[in-house]
Amino acid sequence: MEYLRIENDFPRISHSAVTLGKFDGIHRGHQKLVEKIIEQKQEGAQAVVLALGTASRTILTKEERCRILEEMGVDILLECPLTEKIRHMKAENFIKEILIGDLQVSYVAVGEDFRFGYERKGTPAMLKEFGKKYGFHTEVLPKKMDGRRKISSTFVREELNRGNMEKFRFLMGTDFSVEGIVEHGRGMGHKYLLPTTNLIPPVEKLMPPNGVYITVSHFRDRSYQGITNVGHKPTVGGEKFIGVETYLFDCNEDLYGEYCKVDFKKFLRPEQKFSSLEALKAQLERDAVKGQEYFETL
Ligand SMILES: Cc1cc2nc3c(=O)[nH]c(=O)nc-3n(C[C@H](O)[C@H](O)[C@H](O)COP(=O)(O)O)c2cc1C
Ligand SMILES: Nc1ncnc2c1ncn2[C@@H]1O[C@H](COP(=O)(O)OP(=O)(O)OP(=O)(O)O)[C@@H](O)[C@H]1O
Protein backbone atom coordinates (compact mmCIF):
# COMPACT_ATOMS: atom_id res chain seq x y z
CA MET A 1 0.00 0.00 0.00
CA GLU A 2 1.14 3.50 -0.80
CA TYR A 3 0.90 6.11 1.97
CA LEU A 4 0.92 9.77 1.02
CA ARG A 5 0.58 12.77 3.28
CA ILE A 6 -0.81 15.62 1.20
CA GLU A 7 1.18 18.80 1.76
CA ASN A 8 -0.06 20.78 -1.26
CA ASP A 9 -1.33 19.04 -4.35
CA PHE A 10 -3.10 15.71 -4.60
CA PRO A 11 -1.49 13.01 -6.71
CA ARG A 12 -2.95 12.11 -10.10
CA ILE A 13 -4.57 8.69 -10.06
CA SER A 14 -5.86 7.24 -13.31
CA HIS A 15 -8.90 5.40 -11.89
CA SER A 16 -9.99 5.27 -8.26
CA ALA A 17 -12.66 4.07 -5.86
CA VAL A 18 -12.62 6.40 -2.85
CA THR A 19 -13.97 6.48 0.67
CA LEU A 20 -13.91 9.75 2.59
CA GLY A 21 -13.80 10.70 6.27
CA LYS A 22 -11.52 11.13 9.28
CA PHE A 23 -10.82 7.42 9.82
CA ASP A 24 -9.24 7.83 13.25
CA GLY A 25 -9.59 4.24 14.42
CA ILE A 26 -10.74 1.86 11.69
CA HIS A 27 -13.92 0.76 13.48
CA ARG A 28 -16.56 -1.66 12.16
CA GLY A 29 -18.47 1.11 10.39
CA HIS A 30 -15.32 2.17 8.55
CA GLN A 31 -14.55 -1.45 7.70
CA LYS A 32 -17.82 -1.71 5.74
CA LEU A 33 -16.84 1.31 3.64
CA VAL A 34 -13.35 -0.03 3.03
CA GLU A 35 -14.78 -3.39 1.91
CA LYS A 36 -16.91 -1.50 -0.62
CA ILE A 37 -13.97 0.28 -2.28
CA ILE A 38 -11.98 -2.96 -2.32
CA GLU A 39 -14.78 -4.62 -4.33
CA GLN A 40 -14.16 -1.97 -6.99
CA LYS A 41 -10.64 -3.28 -7.61
CA GLN A 42 -12.32 -5.91 -9.80
CA GLU A 43 -13.39 -3.03 -12.07
CA GLY A 44 -9.80 -1.87 -12.40
CA ALA A 45 -10.01 0.92 -9.81
CA GLN A 46 -7.34 1.67 -7.22
CA ALA A 47 -8.88 1.46 -3.71
CA VAL A 48 -8.19 4.83 -2.06
CA VAL A 49 -8.90 5.91 1.53
CA LEU A 50 -8.92 9.70 1.76
CA ALA A 51 -8.47 10.53 5.45
CA LEU A 52 -9.30 14.17 6.11
CA GLY A 53 -7.85 15.86 9.20
CA THR A 54 -5.52 14.61 11.88
CA ALA A 55 -6.17 14.60 15.62
CA SER A 56 -3.29 15.25 18.04
CA ARG A 57 -3.94 11.94 19.79
CA THR A 58 -5.34 9.06 17.79
CA ILE A 59 -6.90 5.66 18.47
CA LEU A 60 -4.39 4.06 16.09
CA THR A 61 -0.85 5.23 15.37
CA LYS A 62 0.00 6.02 11.74
CA GLU A 63 1.79 2.68 11.45
CA GLU A 64 -1.14 0.73 12.89
CA ARG A 65 -3.64 2.45 10.61
CA CYS A 66 -1.45 1.80 7.57
CA ARG A 67 -1.02 -1.86 8.45
CA ILE A 68 -4.74 -2.47 9.01
CA LEU A 69 -5.72 -0.79 5.73
CA GLU A 70 -2.98 -2.60 3.85
CA GLU A 71 -4.11 -5.96 5.24
CA MET A 72 -7.65 -5.17 4.11
CA GLY A 73 -6.36 -4.61 0.55
CA VAL A 74 -6.36 -0.80 0.26
CA ASP A 75 -4.00 0.45 -2.47
CA ILE A 76 -3.48 4.06 -1.40
CA LEU A 77 -3.97 5.95 1.87
CA LEU A 78 -4.07 9.70 1.35
CA GLU A 79 -3.73 11.61 4.60
CA CYS A 80 -4.93 15.14 4.09
CA PRO A 81 -4.53 17.57 7.01
CA LEU A 82 -7.25 20.20 7.28
CA THR A 83 -5.21 23.13 5.97
CA GLU A 84 -6.75 26.57 5.38
CA LYS A 85 -7.00 25.69 1.70
CA ILE A 86 -8.92 22.46 2.33
CA ARG A 87 -11.13 23.98 5.03
CA HIS A 88 -12.14 26.83 2.75
CA MET A 89 -12.67 24.73 -0.32
CA LYS A 90 -16.32 24.63 -1.39
CA ALA A 91 -17.79 21.14 -1.48
CA GLU A 92 -18.45 21.33 -5.22
CA ASN A 93 -14.86 22.39 -5.90
CA PHE A 94 -13.61 19.52 -3.74
CA ILE A 95 -15.65 17.14 -5.91
CA LYS A 96 -14.60 18.70 -9.21
CA GLU A 97 -10.94 19.44 -8.51
CA ILE A 98 -9.93 16.61 -6.22
CA LEU A 99 -12.30 13.68 -6.70
CA ILE A 100 -12.88 14.08 -10.44
CA GLY A 101 -9.77 16.02 -11.51
CA ASP A 102 -6.98 14.47 -9.46
CA LEU A 103 -8.34 11.10 -8.40
CA GLN A 104 -10.42 10.32 -11.54
CA VAL A 105 -12.98 8.72 -9.32
CA SER A 106 -15.46 6.14 -10.62
CA TYR A 107 -16.93 5.16 -7.25
CA VAL A 108 -17.35 6.89 -3.86
CA ALA A 109 -18.52 5.24 -0.61
CA VAL A 110 -19.56 7.36 2.38
CA GLY A 111 -21.72 7.02 5.48
CA GLU A 112 -25.17 8.59 5.42
CA ASP A 113 -24.23 11.52 7.69
CA PHE A 114 -20.89 12.35 6.05
CA ARG A 115 -20.31 16.09 5.53
CA PHE A 116 -17.44 17.81 3.77
CA GLY A 117 -16.23 21.07 2.27
CA TYR A 118 -16.50 24.69 3.44
CA GLU A 119 -19.10 25.01 6.23
CA ARG A 120 -19.70 21.26 5.89
CA LYS A 121 -22.13 21.95 3.07
CA GLY A 122 -21.15 18.88 1.08
CA THR A 123 -23.53 15.93 1.54
CA PRO A 124 -23.94 12.40 0.17
CA ALA A 125 -26.85 13.75 -1.94
CA MET A 126 -24.52 16.29 -3.53
CA LEU A 127 -22.03 13.54 -4.33
CA LYS A 128 -24.82 11.56 -6.00
CA GLU A 129 -25.95 14.55 -8.03
CA PHE A 130 -22.43 15.33 -9.27
CA GLY A 131 -21.86 11.65 -9.92
CA LYS A 132 -24.79 11.54 -12.33
CA LYS A 133 -23.43 14.53 -14.21
CA TYR A 134 -19.76 13.55 -14.24
CA GLY A 135 -20.04 9.79 -14.40
CA PHE A 136 -19.15 8.32 -11.01
CA HIS A 137 -21.26 6.18 -8.73
CA THR A 138 -21.89 7.14 -5.08
CA GLU A 139 -22.85 4.53 -2.54
CA VAL A 140 -24.28 5.86 0.72
CA LEU A 141 -24.16 3.35 3.56
CA PRO A 142 -26.44 3.36 6.61
CA LYS A 143 -24.45 3.74 9.81
CA LYS A 144 -23.45 0.50 11.48
CA MET A 145 -25.12 0.43 14.89
CA ASP A 146 -24.46 -0.96 18.34
CA GLY A 147 -28.02 -1.27 19.61
CA ARG A 148 -29.41 2.24 19.25
CA ARG A 149 -26.05 4.03 19.11
CA LYS A 150 -24.12 4.69 15.91
CA ILE A 151 -20.64 3.23 15.90
CA SER A 152 -18.20 6.16 15.62
CA SER A 153 -14.66 7.10 16.55
CA THR A 154 -16.12 9.25 19.34
CA PHE A 155 -17.81 6.14 20.78
CA VAL A 156 -14.55 4.16 20.55
CA ARG A 157 -12.63 6.98 22.29
CA GLU A 158 -15.19 7.10 25.12
CA GLU A 159 -14.92 3.38 25.76
CA LEU A 160 -11.12 3.51 25.63
CA ASN A 161 -11.16 6.37 28.17
CA ARG A 162 -13.28 4.17 30.43
CA GLY A 163 -10.94 1.22 30.11
CA ASN A 164 -13.69 -0.89 28.57
CA MET A 165 -11.50 -3.26 26.59
CA GLU A 166 -14.36 -5.64 25.78
CA LYS A 167 -16.40 -2.85 24.17
CA PHE A 168 -13.33 -1.55 22.35
CA ARG A 169 -12.84 -5.01 20.86
CA PHE A 170 -16.50 -5.18 19.84
CA LEU A 171 -16.50 -1.74 18.16
CA MET A 172 -13.14 -2.12 16.43
CA GLY A 173 -13.29 -5.85 15.70
CA THR A 174 -9.83 -6.17 17.25
CA ASP A 175 -8.14 -5.73 20.65
CA PHE A 176 -6.67 -2.47 21.86
CA SER A 177 -2.93 -3.02 21.57
CA VAL A 178 0.44 -1.40 22.15
CA GLU A 179 3.48 -2.46 20.18
CA GLY A 180 7.17 -1.69 20.19
CA ILE A 181 10.60 -2.95 21.10
CA VAL A 182 11.04 -4.31 24.64
CA GLU A 183 13.14 -1.81 26.61
CA HIS A 184 15.08 -2.00 29.85
CA GLY A 185 13.21 -0.80 32.95
CA ARG A 186 15.18 0.16 36.04
CA GLY A 187 15.64 -3.50 36.86
CA MET A 188 13.79 -3.29 40.17
CA GLY A 189 10.96 -5.53 39.07
CA HIS A 190 13.34 -8.35 38.34
CA LYS A 191 15.14 -7.99 41.70
CA TYR A 192 12.32 -7.23 44.13
CA LEU A 193 8.99 -7.97 42.43
CA LEU A 194 8.45 -9.88 39.20
CA PRO A 195 10.33 -9.86 35.89
CA THR A 196 8.60 -7.64 33.35
CA THR A 197 8.79 -6.46 29.73
CA ASN A 198 8.63 -2.69 29.23
CA LEU A 199 7.23 -0.84 26.22
CA ILE A 200 6.86 2.91 25.83
CA PRO A 201 3.83 3.80 23.70
CA PRO A 202 4.15 6.77 21.32
CA VAL A 203 2.81 10.00 22.88
CA GLU A 204 0.30 10.48 20.06
CA LYS A 205 -1.44 7.20 20.89
CA LEU A 206 -4.62 7.44 22.92
CA MET A 207 -4.27 5.20 25.99
CA PRO A 208 -6.78 3.63 28.38
CA PRO A 209 -6.71 4.78 32.05
CA ASN A 210 -3.62 4.00 34.07
CA GLY A 211 -4.10 0.65 35.72
CA VAL A 212 -3.66 -3.08 35.45
CA TYR A 213 -5.01 -5.10 32.52
CA ILE A 214 -5.17 -8.76 31.53
CA THR A 215 -3.20 -9.08 28.29
CA VAL A 216 -1.63 -11.38 25.70
CA SER A 217 1.85 -10.42 24.46
CA HIS A 218 2.80 -11.51 20.95
CA PHE A 219 6.43 -11.87 19.99
CA ARG A 220 7.63 -12.81 16.52
CA ASP A 221 6.95 -16.54 16.86
CA ARG A 222 5.24 -17.03 20.22
CA SER A 223 2.64 -15.52 22.55
CA TYR A 224 2.32 -15.33 26.34
CA GLN A 225 -0.57 -14.52 28.64
CA GLY A 226 0.07 -11.97 31.36
CA ILE A 227 -0.90 -8.84 33.29
CA THR A 228 0.13 -5.35 32.29
CA ASN A 229 0.50 -2.11 34.19
CA VAL A 230 -0.15 1.10 32.27
CA GLY A 231 1.17 4.10 34.14
CA HIS A 232 3.92 5.94 35.97
CA LYS A 233 4.86 3.42 38.76
CA PRO A 234 4.17 5.85 41.65
CA THR A 235 5.24 3.37 44.36
CA VAL A 236 8.84 3.45 43.18
CA GLY A 237 9.17 7.19 42.67
CA GLY A 238 7.28 7.47 39.40
CA GLU A 239 8.32 7.94 35.79
CA LYS A 240 7.43 11.03 33.75
CA PHE A 241 6.32 8.97 30.76
CA ILE A 242 3.55 6.39 30.60
CA GLY A 243 4.94 2.87 30.49
CA VAL A 244 3.34 -0.42 29.47
CA GLU A 245 4.89 -3.04 31.71
CA THR A 246 3.93 -6.70 31.52
CA TYR A 247 4.49 -9.72 33.74
CA LEU A 248 4.27 -12.82 31.52
CA PHE A 249 2.91 -15.86 33.35
CA ASP A 250 5.01 -18.64 31.87
CA CYS A 251 8.17 -17.12 30.55
CA ASN A 252 11.71 -16.72 31.79
CA GLU A 253 13.43 -15.68 28.57
CA ASP A 254 15.50 -12.59 27.92
CA LEU A 255 13.22 -10.53 25.68
CA TYR A 256 15.07 -7.21 25.57
CA GLY A 257 15.26 -5.76 22.08
CA GLU A 258 12.51 -8.00 20.73
CA TYR A 259 9.45 -6.68 18.89
CA CYS A 260 6.30 -7.17 20.98
CA LYS A 261 2.59 -6.44 20.57
CA VAL A 262 0.47 -6.42 23.73
CA ASP A 263 -3.26 -7.11 23.24
CA PHE A 264 -5.47 -5.81 26.04
CA LYS A 265 -8.31 -8.12 27.15
CA LYS A 266 -9.76 -6.72 30.38
CA PHE A 267 -9.27 -3.95 32.95
CA LEU A 268 -8.48 -5.24 36.45
CA ARG A 269 -7.82 -2.25 38.73
CA PRO A 270 -6.47 1.34 38.74
CA GLU A 271 -2.75 1.96 39.32
CA GLN A 272 -2.13 2.76 42.99
CA LYS A 273 0.63 4.16 45.16
CA PHE A 274 1.47 1.45 47.71
CA SER A 275 3.12 2.11 51.09
CA SER A 276 5.83 -0.49 50.47
CA LEU A 277 7.25 -2.82 47.82
CA GLU A 278 5.92 -5.75 49.89
CA ALA A 279 2.37 -4.39 49.65
CA LEU A 280 2.79 -3.90 45.89
CA LYS A 281 4.17 -7.42 45.53
CA ALA A 282 1.22 -8.93 47.42
CA GLN A 283 -1.17 -7.05 45.14
CA LEU A 284 0.72 -8.20 42.02
CA GLU A 285 0.30 -11.79 43.15
CA ARG A 286 -3.46 -11.28 43.56
CA ASP A 287 -3.58 -9.63 40.11
CA ALA A 288 -1.74 -12.59 38.59
CA VAL A 289 -4.24 -15.05 40.10
CA LYS A 290 -7.14 -13.06 38.62
CA GLY A 291 -5.38 -12.97 35.25
CA GLN A 292 -4.79 -16.72 35.22
CA GLU A 293 -8.40 -17.39 36.23
CA TYR A 294 -9.59 -15.23 33.33
CA PHE A 295 -7.74 -17.40 30.79
CA GLU A 296 -8.82 -20.65 32.48
CA THR A 297 -12.48 -19.75 32.13
CA LEU A 298 -12.28 -18.80 28.43
C1 LIG B 1 0.97 -6.12 36.67
C2 LIG B 1 1.68 -4.95 37.26
C3 LIG B 1 0.99 -4.09 38.12
C4 LIG B 1 1.63 -2.99 38.67
N1 LIG B 1 0.92 -2.17 39.49
C5 LIG B 1 1.53 -1.08 40.03
C6 LIG B 1 0.82 -0.19 40.89
O1 LIG B 1 -0.39 -0.32 41.15
N2 LIG B 1 1.48 0.84 41.41
C7 LIG B 1 2.80 1.08 41.15
O2 LIG B 1 3.35 2.04 41.67
N3 LIG B 1 3.49 0.28 40.33
C8 LIG B 1 2.90 -0.79 39.76
N4 LIG B 1 3.61 -1.63 38.94
C9 LIG B 1 4.97 -1.23 38.55
C10 LIG B 1 6.04 -1.71 39.50
O3 LIG B 1 6.26 -0.67 40.40
C11 LIG B 1 7.27 -2.00 38.66
O4 LIG B 1 7.10 -3.27 38.09
C12 LIG B 1 8.54 -1.98 39.39
O5 LIG B 1 8.73 -0.74 39.96
C13 LIG B 1 9.74 -2.30 38.48
O6 LIG B 1 9.99 -1.28 37.58
P1 LIG B 1 11.29 -1.32 36.66
O7 LIG B 1 11.10 -2.42 35.64
O8 LIG B 1 11.32 0.04 36.00
O9 LIG B 1 12.45 -1.53 37.53
C14 LIG B 1 2.99 -2.73 38.38
C15 LIG B 1 3.67 -3.59 37.50
C16 LIG B 1 3.04 -4.69 36.96
C17 LIG B 1 3.80 -5.60 36.05
N1 LIG C 1 -21.02 3.30 11.91
C1 LIG C 1 -20.75 3.62 10.64
N2 LIG C 1 -21.31 2.89 9.64
C2 LIG C 1 -21.04 3.20 8.35
N3 LIG C 1 -20.28 4.23 7.97
C3 LIG C 1 -19.71 4.98 8.92
C4 LIG C 1 -19.90 4.70 10.31
N4 LIG C 1 -19.21 5.60 11.03
C5 LIG C 1 -18.62 6.41 10.16
N5 LIG C 1 -18.94 6.06 8.89
C6 LIG C 1 -18.50 6.71 7.66
O1 LIG C 1 -17.10 6.51 7.56
C7 LIG C 1 -16.47 7.66 7.02
C8 LIG C 1 -15.47 8.16 7.98
O2 LIG C 1 -16.10 8.46 9.19
P1 LIG C 1 -15.44 9.48 10.23
O3 LIG C 1 -14.17 8.88 10.70
O4 LIG C 1 -15.34 10.84 9.59
O5 LIG C 1 -16.57 9.55 11.33
P2 LIG C 1 -16.85 8.79 12.71
O6 LIG C 1 -16.29 7.43 12.75
O7 LIG C 1 -18.34 8.92 12.92
O8 LIG C 1 -16.00 9.64 13.74
P3 LIG C 1 -16.32 10.84 14.73
O9 LIG C 1 -17.02 10.25 15.91
O10 LIG C 1 -14.95 11.36 15.07
O11 LIG C 1 -17.14 11.83 13.96
C9 LIG C 1 -17.60 8.65 6.75
O12 LIG C 1 -18.02 8.52 5.40
C10 LIG C 1 -18.67 8.22 7.71
O13 LIG C 1 -19.96 8.62 7.32
From TrEMBL:
Instruction: Read off the SUPFAM superfamilies from this record.
Output: Nucleotidylyl transferase, Riboflavin kinase-like
Any keyword Zinc? no
Q: What is its EC number?
A: 2.7.1.26, 2.7.7.2
Q: Which domain of life is it from?
A: Bacteria
Catalytic activity annotation: riboflavin + ATP = FMN + ADP + H(+); FMN + ATP + H(+) = FAD + diphosphate
Q: Which Pfam families does its entry note?
A: FAD_syn, Flavokinase
Q: List the pathway annotation.
A: Cofactor biosynthesis; FAD biosynthesis; FAD from FMN: step 1/1; Cofactor biosynthesis; FMN biosynthesis; FMN from riboflavin (ATP route): step 1/1
Give any GO molecular function from the UniProt entry: FMN adenylyltransferase activity
Alphabetical list of Gene3D superfamilies matching this protein: HUPs, Riboflavin kinase-like
PANTHER family with a match to the protein in the record:
RIBOFLAVIN KINASE, RIBOFLAVIN KINASE/FMN ADENYLYLTRANSFERASE
| Protein name, per record | Riboflavin biosynthesis protein
State the organism of origin.
Blautia wexlerae
